[in-house]
Predict the 3D structure of the following.
Amino acid sequence: MAAKYNFPILQIADILEYFSMELSDMGITDSDFTLPKASQWQRFYQILLEAGTGCTQDHLIQAPFQHSEPFEHPEIYEQTVPLLTLTMALKRFGLAAGIADIKMSDLIQPKSKRTIRIVSGIINFLRFQDDRLKVYDDIKQKNAAVKDQHTQLAKANDALQSRINKILAHRAEQEPEMMQLQDQCEVIAANMNNHHKTQTMQQKDISDLKSKIAERNASADQLKVAMITSKEEGENLSRQIVHSPERMKNEQERMKNQLMQLKLTKEERMHRLLELRQVVEQLQDTECHCVQGLKLITGINTEIEKEKEVLAEISNVKDKSQAQKDLLRDFSAKVQQLKRILSTKQDKMTKVSLQHQHKMPGAQETLEQLQQEKSRCEQMHSEDLAERQVVIKQIHQVSNEVTKCTEEHEEAMAQLRGLYMELLVQIDAYHLRLGEERQAVDKMLPGRPMD
C-alpha cells in the first residue's frame, strides 16, 4: 500500500510538531493517533479542510441542509448528509493532495495507520501550498509593481506629451516673430550695404574736401606771402610816394579783411573735418554692432535646428514607448488569458479526476506545460521590465535636453531683443545725424545739386 503514495509518511512526533506550529488550536494529541475516535477526527478533518481550501466550517455545516432538500423525508438523513458532504469534500481535497483512496470508513471507523497516512498527505499538500503561495504572492507583488510602474510611465509620458505640445505651441507662436526678425535682419543687411556705399561716397567727398582745404590753405599761405610782399612794397612805395595816403590805407584794410575771412573759413573747415571724423567712427561702431547682431541671429538659427533634432528624437522615443505599451498590454491580456485557462483547466481537472481517475497523468502533464508557459511568461515579463527601464532613462535624458535647449533659446532671444532695440536706436540716431550732415555739406557746396 505504501507504494501508491507519492509523499513521505511522517512520524507521529513530526505530525504533532507541525500541528503545534501551524494549527495549534486543533488540540490534537498522541492518543488521537494511537486510539483514533470518529467524532474527533471528523472535527480535525474539518479544520484541515478549512486550512487547505479556505472554506469555513460554517459553509461545510450549511451545505448538508441544501443537499437534504430533494429528499422526501430530510429529517431521516440529518446525520447522514453532513457525513456524506464531509466525505465528498475530503475526497476531492485528497485527490489534489495525492490521496485517491479516501473512504467514508476513514471518518466512521478511523484506523491508526490510515489516519497517519492521510494526515501525512494533507500536511505534505499544505506545505506545498505554502511554498507555492509564496511564489504566487511574489508574482502578484511583481505584477502590482509592474502596474504601478506602467501607471507612472503613462503619467510621465502624458506630462512629456503636454510639455512637447507646449513647446510646439510656443514655437508656433514665436515662428512669426522669428520670420519678422529674419525679414528685419535682411532689411538691416540691405541698409548696411547702402550704408557702406554712402560711407565710401562720403569718404570720397571728405577726401575731396581735404584736398580743397589743402588747396585753400596753400592759397591762403600764398596770399599771406603776397600780403607780406605787398606790405613791404607798400612800405617802400609809401617811402617813395607821399601823395594819396587815404587810398593806401583803404587798400590795407581791404587786405586785412580778406585775411580774416580766410582764417575764419579755415577754422570752420577744420571744425567740420573733426565732426566728419567723429561721424565716421560712430558709423564704424554701428557696423560692428550690426555684425554682432547677425552672428547672434545665426547662432539662434543653429539652436533652432538643434531643437528640431531633439524633437525628432523625442518623437522616436515616444513611438518606442507606445510600442512598449502595446507589448505590455498584449502581455497583460495573455497573462489574464493564461489565468483563465489555468482556472478552467483546474476545474476540468477536478471534474475529470472525480469521473476518470486514470486520466490523472495527462492532467499532470498539462499542468507541467502550463507551469513551463508561466515561467516563460515570467521571463518575458522580466525582459519587458528591463526594456521599459531603458526607455524611461532615454525619456528623462531627452526631457532634460529639451529643457536645457529651451532655456538657452529663451536667453539668446532676450539678448537678441536687447541688441536689436539698441541697434534700432543707434540706426535712428545715425540717420538723423546723417541727414543733418548731408544738409550741412549741401549748404557748404553750392555747386552740388540739392536732393
User: Anything to note?
Assistant: Confidence is low (pLDDT under 50) at residues 64-68. The radius of gyration is 55 Å. The chain has nine helices and no strands. Residues 2 and 9 are 8 Å apart (CA to CA).
